[in-house]
Amino acid sequence: MKTNRSSSALGEFIKSRRERLQPSEAGIQPLPGRRRTPGLRREEVSYLANMSVTYYTWLEQGREVNPSPEVLLNISHALQLDEDEKKHLFDLANVDPANAGNLPSSGESDTGFLQKIVDQLHYPSFITDEGTDVIAWNRAAELIIADFGSLPENERYMLNVIFFKPDYRKRLVNWESFARYSAAVLRASFDRHKDNPLYMERFERLKRESAEFVHFWELYEIKQKRVTTALFRLPDGREMEFAIHSAAAVDNDPSLHWCFFVPVPGSGTEETLLRILEQDRLLS
Predict the structure, then answer these.
(1) Using CB atoms within 10 A of its CB, is residue 137 exposed (0-12), middle (13-18) or buried (19+)?
(2) Helix H segments across the chain?
(3) Cα separation, 44 vs 2, whole angstroms
């Protein structure tokens, strides 16, 4: 098999971790014979990882370039990798950890910390998790985009806001193009989340209750998250145009996305936003 740089790096990494782990630490009896290398033998790792010695050897030698998430997970358990090392292992294999259903996460997101992040911007800003739940937002987002705080927690996700909240739809002048783009982004990531019951429940609701979503979904368009635009019309008739930017892997968590709405230069949006925030400050 053809080798590549990443597979070679992966092999060097798991070899280094194999050599540091002693049989007694792994809970196995050492195989008979003189041990020429420190740590575990390949045969012992393959036993612990429930795979053939040949396959494991190929991984160390860089001859196998496409290990599955399950294989990587088994190896991480066998070699007793910590959370940082597990992530590094998956990164070296170019595999999304989310595809390994049993891979433990680093824990609950620190929403207090995330709130401090979005509060640093005076531009409308919010952070969503993997299910598009809005878990942190700033005051500008409430004033311009949607009043997230008034929504019940189980309805505070962006696909719900886009397709089921009339106020948002009325406010977003380019709603149709933005909703179509959102459906195409969902298409691109859909297969990665089909085993998530909540994700599928929300998807089925969209198909059942939104004819517009069904129409956009059946176009079978695929879009990755990119810079797009949103044109909002406020109740007093003022229009504000933003470029929507998205930063992934907030605080090293790949399931989080930070969205921030940057005023389009020359549109007057920056000046309008500053006036709105100042008025809100005086009223609070």
Answers:
(1) buried
(2) 5-20, 23-26, 42-48, 53-61, 69-78, 83-92, 111-119, 139-144, 158-164, 166-171, 175-189, 197-209, 211-218, 269-283
(3) 26
Residue 18 near residue 101, CB atoms below 8 Å: no
| Tokens coding 197 | 């019951």
Chain center to CA of 83: 17
The encoded tokens of residue 55 equal 């396959």
Would you say residue 162 has pLDDT above 80? yes
Six-digit token string for 281? 């400050």
Interval 170-184: pLDDT, tens: 999 999 999 999 999
User: Contacts from 161-169 at CB under 8 Å and sequence distance 24+?
Assistant: 161/134, 163/206, 163/210, 163/212, 163/213, 164/209, 164/210
Distance between CA atoms of residues 31 and 60, nearest Å: 20
> In 3D, which of 180, 159, 181, 173 has the Cα closest to residue 240?
173
Distance CA 148, CA 138 (A): 10
Cα separation, 41 vs 38, in Å, equals: 8
Tell me the pLDDT band of 35, cut-offs 50, 70 and 90: low
d(CA 181, CA 127): 19
